[in-house]
TrEMBL record:
<feature type="binding site">
    <location>
        <position position="213"/>
    </location>
    <ligand>
        <name>substrate</name>
    </ligand>
</feature>
<keyword id="KW-0324">Glycolysis</keyword>
<dbReference type="GO" id="GO:0005829">
    <property type="term" value="C:cytosol"/>
</dbReference>
<feature type="binding site">
    <location>
        <position position="175"/>
    </location>
    <ligand>
        <name>substrate</name>
    </ligand>
</feature>
<dbReference type="GO" id="GO:0006096">
    <property type="term" value="P:glycolytic process"/>
</dbReference>
<dbReference type="GO" id="GO:0046166">
    <property type="term" value="P:glyceraldehyde-3-phosphate biosynthetic process"/>
</dbReference>
<dbReference type="InterPro" id="IPR035990">
    <property type="entry name" value="TIM_sf"/>
</dbReference>
<dbReference type="InterPro" id="IPR013785">
    <property type="entry name" value="Aldolase_TIM"/>
</dbReference>
<comment type="similarity">
    <text>Belongs to the triosephosphate isomerase family.</text>
</comment>
<dbReference type="InterPro" id="IPR022896">
    <property type="entry name" value="TrioseP_Isoase_bac/euk"/>
</dbReference>
<dbReference type="GO" id="GO:0019563">
    <property type="term" value="P:glycerol catabolic process"/>
</dbReference>
<comment type="pathway">
    <text>Carbohydrate degradation; glycolysis; D-glyceraldehyde 3-phosphate from glycerone phosphate: step 1/1.</text>
</comment>
<dbReference type="GO" id="GO:0006094">
    <property type="term" value="P:gluconeogenesis"/>
</dbReference>
<dbReference type="InterPro" id="IPR000652">
    <property type="entry name" value="Triosephosphate_isomerase"/>
</dbReference>
<feature type="active site" description="Electrophile">
    <location>
        <position position="99"/>
    </location>
</feature>
<feature type="binding site">
    <location>
        <begin position="234"/>
        <end position="235"/>
    </location>
    <ligand>
        <name>substrate</name>
    </ligand>
</feature>
<keyword id="KW-0312">Gluconeogenesis</keyword>
Amino acid sequence: MSQRRSLIAGNWKMNCLRADGLAIARGLAERAKTKGELACDILVCPPATLVSDVAGVTTGSAVNVGGQDCHVAVNGAHTGDIAAPMLADIGATYVLVGHSERRADHGESSTVIRQKAMAAHDAGLIAVVCVGETEQERDLDATLAVVNGQIAVSIPEGASAVNTVVAYEPVWAIGTGRTASVAEVAEVHAAIRAELTARFDDGDGFRILYGGSVKPSNAAELLAVPNVDGALVGGASLKVDDFWQIIESCA
Ligand SMILES: O=C[C@H](O)COP(=O)(O)O
């Protein structure tokens, strides 16, 4: 098995005015600097309004910065949207694509998400491609079919372990306080790994993150599950202490 370095990613979603966001970013950057060698990579994805400022205060630290979404095109008449090269231009090195809130709120299909991942790659960004089933789909025993289908369509042919991270986030576990069980996480992550290794020469090297109510109290247990190579954290990433405890849960 290849050595995969874990990634702990914070998705701030539509939270934080400038002062709050910069306080979190500074807090993380200071800890990263004083801690020295860390067992994992760190990523924060602030709202687009703060990407540039957060990149500024985290420069020279181990904290990477990413966008929460990008458009499929590099520029053009797309009012309100943000192109991947624009994110790269202001210091982002990652971008989330296909988060379930984008799929639900903006009707994004896996086909569009694949195009967004391609746009991210073209801009030199690492795409964090998010997948996950709804509660209804899990109740119908369709979890693996749904997730495998999302993986098959959302991840483009040009993907590699270098430019792509997968995030498994069961929709019913996001922001609900309900976390998938270790057995549920293990089953889905193993299925995603099988899809990746079947399709990509370096499929064993892709990092697969778990997301959905990850917090300091459950992080170590989730991060110890086979094929869990980090976490995508929402609510708990808005508190420096909580997010740092999750970072320190990496073995
Ligand atoms: O992107 C993050 C996920 O949606 C998880 O959010 P949460 O940790 O608040 O459940």
